[in-house]
Write a structure and sequence with these properties.
The chain is α+β, with helices and mostly antiparallel strands. It is built from 16 helices and 37 strands.
Length: 783
């Protein structure tokens, strides 16, 4: 095509070349092209040409078609090869067609018909979580210098594409389908195109180079979502346990208060490493309690209480002390976050956004740290605190994305994890036990059963979240269903007569014998989400946690937690728990000064209970070389091996496991530990009895006696025993060793001692013991 006619004189004298129309590939069907001529001095668009080249999409076809269209429709633009007479000829070429304008000064042409390396990366689409239903994303392409708007894309994300990895791809598709100056997706240099990716971080937004441009990214929420956020704030405030001081106490604290500091507290230097956090804890405790007082008031009165509490919070954030990761990111972070939530009732001018919220976001979040299980749940709970307080204080909807992300994390934590996945098996297992601190043995992670302490923390955080997170921010239906399964099929079997089993508590056994009362609280919250069968089980659990085991229906029989080599069996009037170890599992751990003598825990240990007090408080006086169920060489002054974080707590053989038909349960293993090798140990449980067997035990290398401990528990009532001549005797105090004992009676259990080739030598001992918890735990109680 030759451009001729009334503009030819102007063509001959005033047109100036600006850039080329470049083609490096065929166009995709439906792909649109655009060129926008911009006055650089004012930032205003002078002229825009949009073109859809269908059906001419070939690499050398669409360039000519685009140039022809520019020449036919534009006023200030021309395209093609300039001829000697000043006219323009369009070519089938990937580079010959140039773009021309009738006035070169202060003008630039932005076009999507450029080389692939001439696109500018304006924005990374980072998805911290899913989007609430009804979300609209608006992208504005702006001149960075003048603020002039060149393109707006509004994306209404459909329900089926709201997921964290789906909405960025949908947004990218929407931008590309619009076909103006913006493109989105991952840059594919081989294909020379932008490909939308199902990813939380790989999609970028691009624009042609030529001007300083910026992308304004805004997320809009529906009225229903904002109403749900308000509900979350109210529920969160209700859930926070409050300690309201008197005004007199507050006045005393604030006497001499300056620069965010209380006069009577000694503070470390800014940015310093702090071992003793008692001063920081007291500082945040006062700020929190002042917030509690203000929250109880209809208005923030007196006003200086509010300003000083905010100053105290900001002071803590500014100092950025180097303290242990748990206190920094969970313990103190939670206290600070709760303070911010309560203060947000009266703060209305984005005061929290200036200092505290940036610190809180940097310190504890679910998207920039690698945590698992209970620790990740704690991170999510802290993120709920700072995201809700930030939204309430500022009204900025973007903070609600972090709230939704926290809900996503809690939903994900309800799902069983992969043994070889990124979590290395930490979290809810497919057998509905909970694992944490899985120990690395060579290249393999060994599963550590932790349902009772870390697992309780995990479920506490999830259930707390389920209570406050509603509607658009609620946990998914699938997650809640799985959470019911974790409680019913997992936790419900690990407690009896108001007590939790030692095996499920890891190093926390050095803190005491935990109650299972928290299970009732979970069950009450989960009842509305359970089906009929699970409702019955949850109601039974609520009754059982009060100590009533008299009429169990669902919890009768056994469960084999095969991932963890763990047996739980509830009979007609008793419960037994047994733990084996293999090359895939560990029996426990020590750490932070806790549980230094737990080397034999899980190595065939077996605990019996029918009233829940059999082992109450026994740990400081236990002989840890004689844990119930173990077969151990009795080494005097035994030097306990290093078991920090599960090291050396794994089993010696692959063979370990069991089976259950619901009525009968069996657990078996082969174990070599120290000088006692190739011990085959088995526990079998039925409705009214437990059978324990050991065979093939090689003791040829031992130097001291080898003992299999049947039980080591609190002496309650008389200890009677039956000799082979059917004579009954009572042992009041002291120790008795004999080879003619056929049964022992104590605290409701009958221990029948069978033999095959020779009678076993049996020792019965009743004695008073003393000990200190500090012998097995030098740390304060925390997970």
């Amino acid at each position: 095509m030759l451009l001729t006619g009334r503009d030819s004189a102007m063509d001959a004298n005033t047109w100036v070349s600006m850039r080329e129309i470049n083609s490096e590939r065929d166009l995709i069907a439906g792909e649109n092209l655009q060129i926008t001529l911009i006055n650089t001095a004012r930032g205003e668009p002078v002229e825009t040409v949009r073109f859809s080249p269908t059906p001419a999409v070939g690499q050398y076809e669409w360039t000519k078609a685009f140039a022809d269209y520019i020449n036919a429709t534009a006023v200030h633009l021309r395209a093609g090869v300039r001829q000697t007479d000043g006219t323009f000829k369009t070519e089938h070429s990937s580079y010959l067609n140039k773009i021309w304008t009738d006035s070169a000064p202060d003008r630039v042409a932005l076009t999507t018909a450029c080389r692939f390396n001439q696109w500018s990366d304006l924005y990374t689409v980072n998805a911290v979580g899913a989007l609430p239903e009804g979300t609209t994303i608006t992208c504005n392409l702006l001149n960075k210098s003048t603020g002039d708007l060149y393109q707006t894309v509004q994306c209404h994300v459909p329900t089926e594409r709201l997921g964290r990895y789906w909405w960025p791809a949908y947004l990218s598709e929407t931008i590309n389908n619009r076909g103006e100056l913006l493109r989105a997706g991952e840059k594919d240099d081989a294909q020379k195109k932008f490909v939308p990716i199902g990813s939380s971080f790989r999609n970028h937004v691009w624009a042609p180079a030529g001007l300083p441009l910026t992308l304004e990214f805004d997320v809009g929420f529906s009225p229903a979502t904002l109403a749900s956020a308000a509900q979350v704030f109210t529920r969160l405030c209700d859930q926070i346990p409050k300690s309201i001081p008197s005004a007199q106490d507050i006045d005393a604290w604030l006497s001499g208060f300056s620069d965010g500091k209380f006069r009577d507290i000694t503070y470390p230097a800014q940015g310093s490493t702090v071992e003793d956090i008692s001063g920081l804890n007291l500082h945040l405790d006062r700020a929190f309690r002042i917030a509690c007082y203000l929250f109880s008031q209809a208005t923030a009165s007196p006003a200086h209480y509010l300003s000083h509490a905010l100053e105290a919070l900001n002071f803590y954030a500014r100092q950025d002390y180097k303290i242990s990761w748990w206190n920094r990111q969970i313990g103190l972070a939670k206290k600070a976050g709760r303070t911010a939530v309560l203060l947000a009732k009266h703060l209305t001018g984005s005061e929290l956004i200036k200092q505290f919220i940036p610190y809180a976001m940097k310190t504890t979040n679910t998207y920039a740290y690698i945590q698992t299980g209970a620790n990740l749940a704690d991170f999510a709970s802290v993120q709920i605190l700072w995201s809700v307080s930030a939204w309430k204080n500022s009204g900025q909807g973007s903070y609600l994305l972090y709230l939704r992300a926290a809900a996503d994390v809690l939903s994900g934590l309800c799902q069983p994890v992969e043994r070889e996945g990124k979590e290395h098996g930490e979290g809810v297992s497919v057998d509905y036990a909970i694992n944490q601190h899985n120990a690395l043995n060579g290249s393999q992670y060994c599963m550590q059963l932790y349902s009772g302490s870390y697992g309780a923390e995990l479920l506490n955080r999830i259930v707390e979240g389920a209570v406050v997170l509603v509607s658009e921010f609620s946990l998914t239906a699938t997650a809640l269903s799985e959470l019911v399964n974790v409680v019913v099929e997992g936790m419900g079997w690990m407690g009896y007569a108001s007590r939790m089993d030692f095996h499920v508590n890891g190093r926390a056994i050095s803190r005491g014998v935990p109650s299972n009362a928290h299970i009732a609280k979970w069950a009450e919250v989960l009842l509305p989400f359970a089906d009929t069968a699970n409702k019955e089980a949850l109601n039974e659990l609520i009754r059982r946690t009060s100590g009533d085991e008299s009429n169990n229906q669902y919890y009768r029989g056994g469960r084999l937690f095969w991932v963890n080599d763990y047996l739980a069996h509830i009979g007609s009037h008793y419960c037994v728990w047994a733990k084996a170890i293999s090359t895939r599992t560990v029996g426990g751990e020590s750490g932070n000064g806790e549980n230094p003598k737990g080397y034999y825990m899980g190595a065939g240990t077996c605990f019996l209970t029918h009233h829940g007090k059999e082992y109450e408080g026994i740990q400081p006086v236990w002989d840890w070389q004689r844990l119930p169920g173990t077969t151990v060489e009795q080494v005097p002054n035994f030097k306990w091996p290093n078991t920090a974080w599960g090291v050396n707590m794994w089993g010696s053989h692959d063979f370990a496991g069991g089976v259950s038909d619901g009525k009968r349960t069996l657990l078996s293993m082969e174990l070599s530990r120290k000088n006692v090798t190739h011990a085959y140990k088995t526990v079998m449980a039925t409705d009214d009895r437990v059978t324990c067997m050991g065979t093939g035990i090689d003791t040829r290398s031992v130097m001291f006696p080898v003992v299999t401990c049947v039980n080591q528990c609190i002496a309650r009532g008389p200890v009677r025993y039956l000799t082979m001549d059917n004579q009954e005797h009572t042992l009041e105090q002291g120790s008795l060793t004999a080879d003619n004992i056929q049964a022992v009676y104590h605290d409701g259990f009958v221990y029948t001692l069978a033999y095959f080739r020779s009678r076993p030598t049996v020792t019965i001992e009743v004695k008073s013991c003393s000990g200190a918890w500090s012998d097995i735990n030098i740390e304060p109680p925390r997970v």
